[in-house]
Amino acid sequence: HLSELAEVVLQVSLDWVANELQQKTGKPLLMRNDAQIIAQMLVVGYGKLGGLELGYGSDLDIVLLHDGDGKALGTDGERSLENAVYFQRLGQRFVHFLSANTPAGRLYEIDTRLRPSGKSGLVVTSMQGYESYQRKDAWTWGHQALVRARAVAGPGVLCEQFSALRLDLLATSGDEGQLK
User: Counting Cβ atoms within 10 Å, is residue 33 exposed (0-12), middle (13-18) or buried (19+)?
Assistant: First the structure.
């Protein structure tokens, strides 16, 4: 139940933070198949969150991905941003929102070190960048972590894309010599 509660909090928080940022910058737009769409962000849960095993003291291991497949048009507001900048700001605000110290305490301890390139990597990665990282650069433990990974917040379309990618990555045979 704690994992399910965390999922609801993550989704509501993501919606709230995105709405707040979009009031200032507008919505991030993409051209895909000759249609203009709104790009969105996905929260992937790893570890105990991904495995539905959260305890009262558990942190949330998350990776943030955005829908970057298409030609980025930037945001449509008065203070327009490039999509990459928009998603980095959204990711930073989202993590801060969840982990900020308040008089009532901290909502969650957030750990984003499982993202591509770890602490030195971008807070939010495109789905395509994440796939490329997993296929070319991820270490064995990164693939092992995918066993317990799952989409926990974001639009259904991106959740389905991540699930399909995850299954494909897990079914891909690795280099036996490198594994040894």
Answer: exposed
Q: Enter the DSSP assignment of 57.
A: T
CA–CA gap between residue 127 and residue 64 (Å, rounded)? 9
| pLDDT tens for each residue of 89-136 | 999 999 999 998 888 888 889 988 877 766 666 788 899 989 998 988
* Of the candidates 60, 94, 77, 83, the residue with the CA atom closest to the CA atom of residue 26: 77
Pick from 20, 113, 102: nearest CA to 62: 113
**CA 16 and chain centroid, separation:** 16
Question: Distance (Å, rounded) from C-alpha 27 to C-alpha 45?
Answer: 25
- The model scores a pTM over 0.85: yes
Tens of pLDDT, residues 130-178: 999 898 888 887 888 899 999 999 999 999 999 999 999 998 877 777 6
Rounded to a whole number, what is the distance in angstroms from the first to the last CA of the chain? 38
Return the number of other C-beta atoms located less than 10 Å from residue 36's C-beta. Answer: 12
